[in-house]
Amino acid sequence: MASLPTSLALGFGQLFDGAVLRVLLKSIGVTLIAFVLVTIAGWYALDWALARYAIGDGLFAGAGAVREALALVLALLGLWIVWRVVAMAVVQFFAEDVVLAVERRHYPDEASAARHLPFGEQMANAMRSAGRALVANIIAAPIALVLLFTGVGTFAVFWLVNAVLLGRELQDMVWLRYRQECSQAAPLARGQRFLLGGVIAAMLAVPFVNFLAPVLGAASATHLVHRSNRKGRAS
């Protein structure tokens, strides 16, 4: 557990190195494009659904404007819920570059022993991760809505769900490059995964900081996994 703050500090210290910075800028660009497309698509879809089933143009004067505004608010709310899903799915495609940059600088022996993940495997991992996160957040949404009046309950529900999911995803970004068989034990304890995921999940909820969070998570997870492995071998 004590190595988590160190891993986060080391990960942050490498964010602006050339290789990691390039991934950071690419992931921010792709994420912004994805969010614009998702927002526009969601806006039109919700506007169509509201016009068909709830607020038709003939219902009252100005119904169209009210419906469009409501559709935009709902689209933005939905986007906030799936922000982590989209951002992490984007970073999954660049994760190997982040992990490799950290390993080459700090863990050269481990870098030489890693296997390259084929594009198909990376795509499958990203889709499974996004699917798990989307389903979990949809299931958590009704509970979060019930707790909306508490002020912090909604945030706490989404944070808890995403902390668990993120801890696993960030570990796997590194571990899957070394795992030889499906039965091989994961390198991080559940507590370590949860704390790492919790820190990154909290950062994903903060505007502007959320752009850095996925890449920082991948870099920090690399340190945490390798430091834990070295400690395990030494004991």
TrEMBL record:
Family annotation (Pfam families): EI24
InterPro entries listed in its UniProt record: CysZ/EI24
Record field: transmembrane: 32-51, 71-95, 133-161, 194-225
Highest taxon listed in the record's lineage: Bacteria
Alphabetized UniProt keyword annotations: Membrane, Transmembrane, Transmembrane helix
Primary location class: membrane
Membrane topology (UniProt): Multi-pass membrane protein
Entry keyword annotation includes Membrane: yes
Subcellular location: Membrane
Protein name, UniProt field: EI24 domain-containing protein
